[in-house]
Amino acid sequence: MYLFVFLVLLVALALLRDFLLLLFRQLCSPLRRLPGPPSPSFFMGNLEQMHDMENNNLIANWVNSYGTTFVYRGFIGGCRLMTTDPVAIAHILGNAYHYPKPDFVRESLASMAAGHDGLLVVEGADHRRQRKILAPAFSAGHIKSLSPIFWDKATELRDIWLTEVDSASFDPGRENSITRIDVLVWLGRATLDVIGLAGFGYAFNALTDDSNELARAFSVIFSTARKFRVMTILQAWFPFLRRFRRNNAAMAQAKATMRRIGLELIDEKRKAIQHERDSYLHEPAKIGPLQDQSTARSQGPKELRGRDLLSVLIQSNLSSDASQQMSEDEVLSQISTFLAAGHETTSSALTWCLYALANNRPAQEKLRVELRKLDAADRTQQSPPPKSDHEDLTERIARCGYLDWVVRESLRVHAPVTNTMRVCMRDEDEIPVQAVLPRKSNAQVDAIDDRGRTTMDQNVDIHGNRRSTISVRKWDIISVPIQAINKSEAFWGEDAKLFSA
């Protein structure tokens, strides 16, 4: 009994300590001097308001009222900087290692990626090292070499959809009915197949079979991570509570499945690469005159380097250079990280692009005319062109100017990632700003722009003082609303919210 009471008191004291520390940071934050919307709640600030109005009108209204750089309230009334100012954003993202992702964002990403060692989660020196190791896998040449996988899966998906449409047309009871296809589900399966083959040489076969255990395990982890839980928020802000984190049985089993299959993939790749390397070393003719045995042993033949993602990781682990090595846990985390990043966002972006085209018949017809000039696989062809023709077709598609415009415009209007957050890790810093739209009555007006808004070439705080920079301190959180910027009339004109292809 006494032990239980003692433990409860320890937890309460730890919570009180962290709570007071948060309050102290807010009281000392220079962000308190900036204007911003009123907070409807002390504990949740403007967060619930932003969640309920998950569109850009709210942020656009804030920009019109308080300028391009202002403060909103987060958890426990914490001041958070939000900016759509291009100069400020360039400073923040251009100094990424001084402005990493906040701890609670990294925890959220780690839960979706089933690990804390993936590229999306790590920061600082570990991020530099991993990015350098992974760079060859994302070079233009390597991505281009993966085009046969893209063609094969795109054609397979096309055939499935055509079969569904054709089968409905021959159904006597559905002569005048409309065939409905849930494109998000099918695109999700297709992108899962692509990332499996291109990233790890693993066949999910999701387009034809939904029983793959790795696919199901990933689905459990990803869907569980996206669920809203109060305890998850508390653990993000009070790190000591993470010691009490518990996984449910389904989550634990899913993680065990991902780890088991991941280790099997790593072992298979390692053996294959080592076998090819050993064969290479036993044939001196393949080693160039300027390449010594030690270099050949550490690098192997060129065809071993820069294939799929997992091969690059295994190759780095076989390198004699310690700075180019990843641990086994890091490799496992990359597998789940790129499953999450390469699967969900891609299928979502493709779905929104099709939605935009479905609502814009002229754009749809114009794009169809351009693509039909490519002489690509037609409706009667049950497979993509021969692999020797893949490269030529890929280059021709890359020259399709209108297709490029449609994709870019779709990504602008329907950004897969709508927001990014950073935290200042410098003791103090000054973030430069380009312009704001002040609305304070005591602010001196320099000019009125062509839209009737008061503008100044410097920032104005709540006291009406001009500022060319924004002062921030360590642990101050900054939010960059990507989707709001993409739909800003100040950047894109009066039709910024429309898909204008």
Helix percentage: 40-55%
Q: pLDDT average, as an integer?
A: 79
Task: Report the CATH superfamily of the domain at 137-344.
Answer: Cytochrome P450
Count of discrete alpha- or pi-helical segments spanning 4 or more residues: 20
What would you report as the Rg, rounded to the nearest angstrom? 27 Å
Poorly predicted tracts of residues: 289-306, 436-458
Beta-strand segment tally: 10
Order of helices and strands: HHHEEHHHHHHHHHHHHHHHEEEEEEEEHH
What is the global morphology? Answer: globular
Distance between the termini: 69 Å
Q: What is the CATH fold-level name of the domain at 137-344?
A: Cytochrome p450
The chain-level structural class is alpha+beta
Proportion of residues in β-strands: 5-15%
Major sheet characteristics: 4 strands, mixed
Describe the strand arrangement of the main beta sheet, using strand numbers.
Answer: 1-2-10-3
CATH class of the domain at 137-344: Mainly Alpha
Q: What is the annotated CATH architecture of the domain at 137-344?
A: Orthogonal Bundle
Q: What does the model show?
A:
Helix content is 54%, strand content 7%. It is of the alpha+beta class. The strands form 4 sheets. It has a 4-stranded mixed β-sheet with strand order 1-2-10-3. A two-stranded antiparallel sheet has the order 4-9. A hairpin with a 5-residue loop joins strand 5 (447-448) and strand 6. Helix 12 crosses helix 14. Residues 289-306 and 436-458 have low confidence and may be disordered.
